[in-house]
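Design a sequence for this backbone.
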């Protein structure tokens, strides 16, 4: 499919739509429901959540089940683009780590924006920066991680937590 002179595959459009829908559903779950509030409470402080009467073990099972479902969806989206081997997601883990660090651990939307930014900057660097090329473009996320950790350790969209003693 060609849009404004740019070729985009139908699979890429479908993958993007699935990611946007999953992101919206997760945001709605964690911000707008009692289950999401309980899951966040258990993640932040399980002991306090247990004292509040929340079933911590069940909520942890729900959290792990949700992680498994999201992992399965991610694997199904990535598998057609990669060769099916035991280490097929090793390269994807580098980009996932970079996106989480750049976007901020407290901002799911920031992680998605950071992942998009990494993809764009990596490909622009591969084409326009002569010494990087396509062989060293995997170094771009590491350079971005280094710069962001020096300038803004909580990530581009993360919140700075202040702990008062």
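Sequence:
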């Amino acid at each position: 499919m060609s849009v404004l002179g740019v070729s985009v595959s139908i699979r890429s459009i479908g993958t993007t739509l699935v990611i946007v829908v999953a992101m919206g559903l997760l945001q709605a779950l964690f911000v707008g429901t009692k289950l999401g509030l309980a899951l966040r409470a258990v993640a932040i402080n399980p002991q306090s959540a247990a004292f509040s009467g929340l079933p911590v073990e069940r909520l942890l099972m729900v959290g792990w089940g949700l992680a498994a479902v999201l992992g399965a969806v991610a694997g199904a989206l990535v598998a057609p683009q990669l060769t099916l081997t035991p280490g097929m997601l090793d390269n994807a883990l580098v980009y996932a780590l970079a996106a989480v660090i750049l976007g901020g651990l407290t901002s799911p939307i920031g992680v998605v924006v950071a992942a998009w930014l990494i993809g764009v900057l990596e490909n622009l660097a591969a084409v326009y920066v002569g010494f990087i090329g396509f062989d060293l473009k995997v170094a771009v996320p590491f350079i971005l991680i280094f710069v962001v950790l020096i300038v803004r350790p909580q990530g581009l969209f993360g919140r700075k937590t202040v702990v008062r003693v």
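Helices lie at 10-32, 34-44, 46-51, 56-78, 90-103, 108-128, 139-151.
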